[in-house]
Structure formats: C-alpha cells, structure tokens
Design goal:
This protein is of the alpha+beta class and about 575 residues long. The chain contains 15 helices and 31 strands. Strands 3, 7, 8, 9, 10, 11, 12, 21 and 24 form a nine-stranded mixed sheet that branches. Strands 16-14-15-17-20 form a five-stranded mixed sheet. The chain has a five-stranded mixed sheet with strand order 28-27-29-30-31, with helices on both faces. The longest helix is centred in the first third of the chain and has 21 residues. It is globular, with a radius of gyration of 29 Å. The structure holds adenosine-5'-triphosphate and magnesium ion. Adenosine-5'-triphosphate binds next to strand 8, strand 21, strand 24 and helix 11.
C-alpha cells in the first residue's frame, strides 16, 4: 500500500484524555478514533492489526477443535430471565425495547444464547464434546470506560463455550483451550502469565486469567512466586498460615478514650501501638445480612473471600445509618466486644494477644482485647488480601505483587448454566444429564492494546511481525531523485510479488525526517530505507524496528534478506 494513497492520519500529540501508552500511540499512529466514551472506530491500519489478532485466535481455536459460529448481538430478555442475569447484570447491560415494547439487550456475553442453542440441538452423548466460539462485538456499559480499547463499552471478544458429558471431559477440553490460549498470546508477541482467579459473578468453580504484567495499564493485581510459579489474582490468592506468635500473658480489658481518632493510623499514633496490634472491624451487608469482619490493622479485607465464605451473591459495606443502627457507634469506633452481630475473623486474629479495637462507642477503644476471652468469632477464615512479601502458600518463598492486564479468562462452569436453563442430553446409561460446561474469553482489542504496551519505545510502536499492520515499510527518502524513486518502485513491486505485506512511503512532499518519525511511530517491523547509502555505496539500509539494528544490504539480495528476517521473527514468537 502506498502511503500517498492510504488513509493514515497520524497526530503529533495525543489528546489529553489518553492516559496510557497504547491508547496514545493508537491515536497518534492513526489506528483508531474515538466516537464516544468507550466507543471507537478502527481506521485502515488499526483494522489490519485487529484482523491479524483475530486470525491467530481463529487458527488456534480451530486447531483445538472448536467450531466457529456467530450469535446475534441483540438478545431477547427471556433467556436472561432464566438465569436471573437480566437483573443481576445491573447497569452494565445495555437494554433496549423493540417497537412492540419487548425487552432486548446487547449481549455483554453469550452463555444464555449458547445454552439455548445447545439444549435444542445437542441431544446425545454421542454428539459431545462440542466447543463453539465466535468473534463478535460485546456491549458493556462499564462504570469507568478508559484506556482506549482496554476498557471499552463496545469491544470485540472471542468467546467460546464448551459442552461435555462429564467433569473428566471438561478437564480435557479445558486443558486444550488453555494450551491454545498460551499459543495465541505467544504468537501475538505477548508475555502472558496464567494465574488462578476468582470466578466472580459468572459463577463456576475454577477459573484462570491470562495477564500481561504492566505497571501503568494493569487493572488486576496479582501475586507471583518467583520460585514455584504460583500465581493468583488478589481476589483468589490464598494466604499462607502464619507461624504461631509467642504467647503473651492476657492483660485486663480496658476502655480508653480516643477522641476523634478513627483511622487505624490515627489510633495507632494516639495510643502509640503498631497497627499490627490493632484490629480493624468492618460492617458488611451480604445478601441483606450484616456481618462484622475483622482483620489485623495492617491488613486489607478481601471482599470476594468474605462473600464466597458466606456463599453470598452481593456484598457491600454497610452505610452510616446501618452501622449506627446495628453497632450503636460510627465507623472508626467499631469492634467485636459485646457486638450483637455475626462475626467473621481473619485467621491471623487468632494469633494476636492484647490488641486494640473499637468499643462500639464513639470516641472509645478497648485495649488488651483477647479472642475467646472478650469475644468469640462465629467463623474464622482467610479473609484478607495477600501482600507483597507474604509467604507463597505453596512453597513459602516471599511473593511478588504485580499489576496486570487481563487479556483472557477461562472458567470451568460445571452445570451452573445448564441447570438453570434445563439443558440436558441423553447419556450412555440412558439417563438425562446436564451439560458440563466451560467458557473462555479473549478481548481482541485489549490484546492488541496489550501488545503495544509491551512493545514500544519513546518513538512509537514496535509491532511483533505477526500482528503488524504491514510486515515491511519501504521509505523512499527522495521521490524527486530518479535513482531513488526507481529503485523504491522496483523494490515495492518485488516485495509485493513475493507475497510480503508492504507499506510504501512514496510521499513526494514530505521530508526524510518526517518519514523516519512516522515509520518509527507506526512501527512496521522492518524498514527498508532507500536514500543516501544507495547513492553513496549502492546499498539499502535495513532497520529492525524492534532492536534498532541497521544493516547495509545489496539491492539484489534485499528480497532474500528481508524474507529471512521475517521468518526468523515469526519463528522466535513460538519459542
Ligand atoms: P474485567 O475484569 O477486566 O472487567 P471481565 O472479567 O469482565 O474483565 P470477561 O467477562 O471474562 O471479562 O471477558 C473476557 C475478556 O474480554 C477479558 O479477559 C478481557 O480481555 C475482555 N474484556 C472484558 N471487558 C472488556 C472491556 N470493557 N473492554 C475491552 N475488553 C474487555
Ligand atoms: Mg468486567
């Protein structure tokens, strides 16, 4: 493609609202444009990359035996009522009515649609296993659309759904798709870590996230063990058992005035005790029931663990009025002593002596509190967040904490959806059974953005060859010079004839400097520069955008040289 004929509106500066590198570079390099908050158009170069990510996903899903189909984006309310998700999804779901007033939504995901299909069509174990997938726009009215394609409201997703006759069958299917995901992300040039995840609102038992480490663009925190490779997101990461602390003699319980001291920090300073000697008491509402959760002063409560522990669906902190009503005091003065509410304690609390907590009276705290003398929790469990440096629950090595971009997500759903939607097949033994399901998602646009987060420098994008809009860019530095323009045209033809995808900077009215800058910005992996070195030594300059390495090559060996470079780059991805 000739740049003079294509549509490549590059920008010198990215708009103010672009916060992260990939978003800025996609706008600057003319790949996407914003239409509304979280809603984007793909321009020609951006679309080429997106299609390449799609193609890699297709090839690997097909290779894993999955079958591509396409559901509509518009889905009727009835199937969502069957699973209860018409209301559960809340405001994130885009809802609409047809002219007769019937309810529809724009699919945020397609479990209901696929189960509705399967229950009518897959009747016997002989037809199982089956995995269906599609690549389609999803609609989610995200609370905070941001970071460009990373968290959009319309975004392309590859979603897949598997149907097996048994749990063992699901295990096998899950592993196949898991391995396909590893290959997909490698082929896209991404360094992805599969981590244990909480399956959240979608339900089910086991789930994995595929994350790319990114300090600035990552939205999911996870821990990683450098020794044994244990990796889990914060919601799911288990806390290792503490060593029992040395027993202390229990001192008499005492109420002390702590006027206007509410936060852990304030109380800790005022009473001159470390925050690890304080207990934080937090009142939560889980499916309408109140629970007082206790964690050590220097720990954070993990709402997901608390919710899962109590088999809840919805969890939220109690509001000020509720706190006052139930506890008789305000947040900041709460505690478990004499509390008339269910108490869940983090297991670390059981290892504390003579600690400080709120007295359920504004402006007062208790000191020298001891579990099982002054109060008894109803439940003791792991309900805190793992922290950097905590011991790995598998091998004891200090854990590292990272921020990651979640590019893919896989779930073992089991029979959760098939039971709700009464989706059964006839098994070998002549009995009707529920399908055992899995579901598997990849954000196509988010993957593309993550690739840019991982592959860029201050000048622009450094596309891995597999997902670059073009493989080679020819920069003709002076189209007014006959030798330069003739050779450039000749190379453009030669390369194209060999099947390479070539972008040709043939602009006549643009300086060499601008061409260099644009080429580095759009980030085509191999630049073939036709200019000074051709005039002086009869050689072309070939630049590897990734490494920055420049090589002088004879015109006659250019095709061979570039083909070799491309092959090496593709091969390196799967290593
Ligand atoms: P997140 O926690 O980031 O909101 P999710 O758990 O809601 O993600 P899934 O429902 O598992 O996401 O969707 C599968 C994949 O779709 C995700 O792994 C991610 O790559 C992509 N994805 C989800 N939401 C968005 C979004 N708003 N914009 C772009 N991609 C998204
Ligand atoms: Mg989400």
């Amino acid at each position: 493609m000739r740049i003079s004929e294509t549509f490549l509106p590059t920008l010198r500066e990215a708009p103010q609202d672009a916060e992260i590198v990939s978003h800025k570079l996609m706008l600057k390099a003319g790949l996407i444009r914003k239409v509304a908050s979280g809603v984007y158009s793909f321009l020609p170069l951006g679309l080429r990359s997106l299609k390449k990510v799609e193609r890699i996903i297709r090839e690997e899903m097909d290779r894993a035996g999955a079958l591509e189909l396409l559901f509509p984006a518009i889905l009727p309310r009835e199937i969502w009522d069957e699973t209860g998700r018409w209301s559960l999804y809340g405001n994130e779901m885009f809802k609409l009515k047809d002219r007769k007033g019937r309810d529809f939504c724009l699919g945020p995901t397609h479990e209901e649609a696929v189960v509705d299909l399967a229950r009518g069509e897959l009747r016997s174990y002989k037809e199982l296993p089956k995995t269906f997938y599609q690549i389609q726009a999803k609609y989610r009215d995200e609370i905070r659309p941001r970071f460009g394609l990373m968290r959009a409201r319309e975004f392309l997703m590859k979603d897949a759904y598997s149907f097996d006759a048994s749990e063992e069958g699901l295990e096998k299917t899950y592993e196949k798709i898991f391995n396909a995901y590893i290959r997909i992300f490698k082929r896209c040039g991404l360094t992805v870590i599969p981590i244990d995840a909480d399956s959240g609102a979608i339900g089910g038992k086991v789930s994995n996230e595929f994350v790319v480490i990114s300090e600035k663009a990552g939205e999911s925190e996870f821990v990683y063990c450098p020794k044994c490779g244990y990796a889990a997101n914060i919601e799911a990461a288990k806390c290792a058992e503490d060593m029992p602390s040395e027993k202390e003699e229990m001192l008499p319980l005492k109420k002390v005035a702590t006027p206007n001291k509410k936060t852990i920090d304030e109380v800790s300073k005022f009473l001159n005790v470390p925050s690890a000697k304080l207990v934080k008491s937090l009142l939560y509402k889980i499916d309408g029931e109140f629970v007082l959760a206790l964690v050590r002063g220097d720990d954070e409560l993990n709402e997901v663990k608390l919710k899962n522990l109590l088999h809840g669906q919805f969890i939220s902190p109690a509001n000020d009025d509720e706190i006052k009503n139930i506890m008789g005091a305000s947040a900041g003065s709460l505690g478990p002593v004499n509390a008339n509410v269910k108490i869940v304690a983090d297991k670390r609390i059981m290892n504390m002596y003579n600690f400080v907590c709120g007295a359920n009276e504004d402006g007062f705290h208790f000191i020298n509190v001891n579990v099982n003398r002054d109060f008894s929790p109803d439940t003791v469990s792991d309900i805190r967040n793992v922290k950097e440096g905590d011991k790995c629950p598998k091998c004891g090595t200090p854990l590292k904490l990272y921020e990651g971009i979640e590019v893919g997500h896989t779930f073992k759903l089991g029979t959760k959806y098939s039971e709700k939607m009464n989706a059964k097949f006839l098994d070998k033994d002549g009995k009707e059974k529920y399908f055992v399901m899995g579901c598997y998602g990849i954000g196509v646009g988010r993957t593309m953005a993550a690739v840019i987060e991982e592959h860029h420098d201050k000048f622009g994008i450094k596309w891995p060859v597999s997902v670059a809009p073009y493989e080679v860019e020819i920069l003709s530095l002076n189209m007014g010079d006959d030798l330069i323009s003739n050779i450039s045209e000749e190379l453009y033809k030669l390369f194209s004839d060999k099947g390479m995808e070539v972008l040709f900077d043939d602009r006549a009215d643009v300086s060499a400097g601008v061409k260099f800058n644009d080429a580095d910005l759009i980030g085509i992996p191999i630049q073939v520069i036709v200019g000074r070195t051709l005039k002086k030594e009869g050689k072309l300059e070939i630049k590897d955008r990734e490494s920055g390495e420049k090589m002088l090559v004879d015109k006659d060996s250019a095709v061979h040289f570039v083909l070799n470079m491309l092959k090496e780059k593709v091969d390196a991805l799967l290593k």
